[in-house]
Amino acid sequence: MVQQPKLTPMMEQYMITKAQYPDAFLFYRLGDFYELFYEDAEKAAQILELTLTSRNRNAENPIPMCGVPHHAAQGYIDVLIDKGYKVAICEQMEDPKEAKGMVKREVIQLVTPGTVVSSKELDAKENNYLTALFIDEQHKEYGFAYADLSTGELKASHLADIDGIINECNSLQTKEIVLNKECSEVLMQRFEQKNILVSYQALQAPNSEESYLTAYLENSLAANAAVILVAYLSSTQKRQLGHLQQAVAYEPSHFLKMDYYSKYNLELARSIRTGEKKGTLLWLLDDTQTAMGGRLLKQWLDRPLIQEQAIISRQDMVESLLNAYFERIEIKENLKRVYDLERLVGRVSFGNVNARDLLQLKQSLQQIPILKQTLSGLDSGVWSTLLTNLTPLPAVSDLIEQAVNEEAPLSITEGNIIASGYDEQLDIYRDAMTNGKQWLAELEAKERNLTGIKTLKIKFNRVFGYFIEVTKSNIGEVPAERYERKQTLANAERYVTPELKELETIILEAEEQSQSLEYQLFIAIRDEIKQHISALQKLAKSVAELDVLQSFASVSETYNYVRPTMLPDKHELELLEGRHPVVEKVVGHQEYVPNTVSMPEDVDILLITGPNMSGKSTYMRQLALTVVMAQMGCFVPAEKAVLPIFDQIFTRIGASDDLISGQSTFMVEMMEANQALRHATVNSLILFDELGRGTATYDGMALAQAIIEYIHAHVHAKTLFSTHYHEITALEQTLSGLKNCHVGAVEQEGEVVFLHKMMDGPADKSYGVHVAKLAGLPENLLARASEILHHLETQHNQDLMLENEAIAPIDAIQKIPKEVEMVQETDDSSAQLSLFSDISEVDQQIVDELKKLNLMAMNPMEAMTKLYEMQQKLNG
Ligand code: ADP
Questions:
Q1: Binding site annotation covers 610?
Q2: Is 617 annotated as a binding-site member?
Q3: Residue ranges around ligand 1 (CB below 6 Å)
Q4: Alpha carbon of 792 to ligand 1 centroid (Å)
Q5: Would the CATH topology of 266-411+535-559 be identical to that of 424-520?
Q6: In this structure, which long-range contacts are made by residues 509-515, counting pairs with CB atoms below 8 Å and at least 24 apart in sequence?
Q7: Which residue's alpha carbon is at the smallest distance from atom 5 of ligand 1?
Q8: Is the pLDDT reported for residue 560 higher than 60?
Q9: N or C: which end of the chain has fewer CB within 10 A?
Q10: Which atom of ligand 1 is nearest to the CA of 591?
């Protein structure tokens, strides 16, 4: 920043303030404008398309400046926040007219992407989470916390690694993370890639508010993260945050775990193609009637359950609602009348609530007894907890009913917000205001009578207030003893009388006082409601829960879903005539071909073959989405479903190239495969769609087979593996836990017809050329492709006859040691010679190396690499 030689006192004040907020745009209040100076001005002028001017145009170094009118500031602030910037709002703290010397100014709020609460910016059905990370460098451990300032939710956990952190950030879609110190470059890059703004807040001994909020966190890392989060919130918001709820500890491992890629690939909340909600599972499941319900649904989708009892309890409630159509419709109708309780309560505490908000709060609270009444008509056992938590708060709704005017305006300073009959003094003032006109008319008539001046008028102006005006021609009639002269005009005189003065005091005071009295009363009502914040929040949570459950019931009924049976201790899965819920909704129930997924105790892997576009990945996603729905407590799209409770879902579906981080499809593929192989347990679900496609045929096939063998031998997770390598289907003969299946297709007059029907056994051909034909490729190109295909197939068959046996690369790994063993056992040099007749010294070294190789200690990738090296050496 250019240092000016001589700054005015005001600019000095600006510089001191700006120095405290170097990373924020400083909106500096000057009269009716917020002004920005220097670099802030230059940058803001560009982003907000404002005219850049300068403060002291004639000076040697004019100060760049731009400004926005204060009443329109919110729109500009929203734009800056949306682009990931921070805005410090600096207000005049005293009336400039009354200030002695420089007007006192202070930053009253630092608005940041993670702390926005203005309703315009927030999508009602989305949370806006601010996250915090406490870094313990010594132990390479992390405390993690998140809060939504608009709803008061605060949660904290303890995470072991960077992947865990990024997963949490992704699933919370945080825009800002607060760190206690600088983090590693790797982590910083990950935040940058995800457009997460990094802010800092050092850990200090918690103040009383912070220790109260974090009192129940046993893990000290989690507690520290929550403390820095709360400290950051209070230092930026600069006000009491009474609605922040006591932090709740959570463990990501207490929920069905899905990493970012899996959630992305399965299109749970965002469509891969459009990035929108439409076309996702969230879109399908969302029949919530309230904003809170919408947000809770998203949270449940992010964290499906793994405890049997909790799942059953949600299913019971959904079933109960499904069995009571009329009550359900009634509940839905009532919920429509419930506003966003959570955010309304947030605004009460935050101090930006207005009278209309309170009316919404009242209307929402008035629905609670009705909802309760309807619910109590259903199975009481199933609903007992929710019924207890749905506590109406008549103290709050009655207070608002009595106190707030039904027709209240938005502004809370211009009066007309308090209902009549609520406050005696206010009623007197209002009486004076309405009756004042009448009194003046009466007085005017009385004075005309007394003086006999027919043209005498009572008038008002801002300088003199009320006065009696008499035209020059009549001043002789004015009773001098009662009339005091105030002003002389060209053709009239203005007077006041003691009686008029008295009336004036009553009327003017009434107007002035009633406004400030209304404001005071409003603040008192708000403070009274603040006493009920935690009860209101608890109530909001229960309403949200009821809303999600009715949404599940309603969707389940519309699409004919069934209640799944959960078998937590068994390793079997039976999904009879299952459907992909989103594809079914899009293509229509009639068009959708249902498919069974059957994996008894002894089948771990389904190897799926079939032409492109036949429905392989739809089949795989169908199972994953069904599992997610079941573990959220919803019913599922099938005729019958028996499911284990999965602990994790891993997917490798479709091309999710991480272009920003510069990783190729194949690298991403291998990383995702690695995640699954290393972290999956026997209770996990793995979906691998055409793994190995991103590399050369033999590499890909070798890896695909090795990965299947590894899962079969070591992981035992239920796995769906689709592949276009037909060769691998032979594995069914050697791996007892693997079953082949394929999606049927038939050829009719040279055209392929997809049946979308899953059948036992491997597919007979891949129909690639047929699919290309469907895609409309030129005829002569297709003819040439068929010719090449025919040639390749013939050649392949000849090769097979020559080799007598097709050895897939991994079979080769298994084969070589056996041959080497033979050599070892015979310990006969002639036998060695007969096997390796032209063996060179280098080759011998390789044979020796092979002998020592501990295959069981290697992962498939390492084995492949080693084998490749050896082959390179052998080929010279
Ligand atoms: P693949 O993975 O075999 O290439 P997809 O699973 O992507 O094929 O399916 C291709 C298209 O076929 C889908 O977009 C969908 O419209 C349709 N489809 C898939 N399965 C079914 C089904 N069971 N019933 C009806 N249409 C289906």
A1: yes
A2: yes
A3: 583, 587, 591-593, 595, 610, 612-618, 756
A4: 29
A5: yes
A6: 509/429, 509/432, 510/428, 510/429, 510/430, 510/431, 510/432, 510/433, 510/436, 511/429, 511/433, 513/429, 514/415, 514/426, 514/429, 514/430, 514/433, 515/413, 515/414, 515/415
A7: 615
A8: yes
A9: C
A10: 25
702-759 per-position pLDDT tens digit: 889 999 999 999 999 999 999 888 888 999 999 999 999 988 877 777 677 778 888 8
Name the architecture of domain 9-111. 3-Layer(aba) Sandwich (3.40)
User: Does residue 1 surpass a pLDDT of 60?
Assistant: no
For residue 362, what are its two tokens?
């009242």
Q: Which atom of ligand 1 is nearest to the CA of 618?
A: 6
Ligand-binding site membership of 614 (annotated): yes
Dihedral sign, Cα of residue 362, residue 363, residue 369, residue 375: negative
Nearest C-alpha to atom 18 of ligand 1 is from which residue?
A: 615
Indicate the residue type of 651: T
Q: How far is the CA of 402 from the centre of ligand 1 (A)?
A: 60
Report which protein residue has its CA nearest ligand 1's atom 4. Answer: 613
> Which ligand 1 atom minimizes the distance to the CA of 620?
6
User: 611 labelled as ligand-binding?
Assistant: yes
SS (H, E, C) 424-450: HHHHHHHHHHHHHHHHHHHHHHHHHHH
Second-level CATH architecture of 424-520: Orthogonal Bundle (1.10)
Ligand 1 centre from 613 Cα, in Å? 6
What φ, ψ does residue 147 adopt, rounded to 5°? Answer: -145, 150
The domain 266-411+535-559 is placed in CATH, from the list 1.10.238.10, 1.10.1420.10, 3.40.50.300, 3.40.1710.10, at: 1.10.1420.10
Given the CA of residue 754, which atom of ligand 1 is nearest to it?
12
pLDDT score of 138: 79
Q: Which of 242, 346, 331 is nearest to 288 (CA)?
A: 331
Which atom from ligand 1 is nearest to the alpha carbon of 689?
A: 2
Q: How far is CA 73 from CA 39, 609, 749, in A?
A: 19, 60, 68
pLDDT in tens, 266-300: 999 988 888 889 999 999 999 999 999 999 999 99
Q: Which atom of ligand 1 is nearest to the CA of 594?
A: 23
Domain segments of the chain: what residues?
9-111, 121-254, 266-411+535-559, 424-520, 565-777, 844-875
Does the annotation place 768 within a ligand binding site? no
DSSP state of 857: G
Mutate to test the pocket of ligand 1, among 271, 582, 583, 766 (most ligand atoms within 8 A of CB): 583
Widest CA span in the chain: 151
Q: Does 766 have pLDDT greater than 70?
A: no
Residue 740 structure tokens: 């082949």
- Supply the pLDDT for residue 807: 40
What span, in angstroms and rounded, lies between the C-alpha atoms of 594 and 742? Answer: 14
Compute the distance from residue 299 Cα to the ligand 1 centre, in Å.
29
Kindly report the CATH number that applies to the domain delimited by 565-777.
Answer: 3.40.50.300
Predicted TM-score of the model (pTM): 0.79
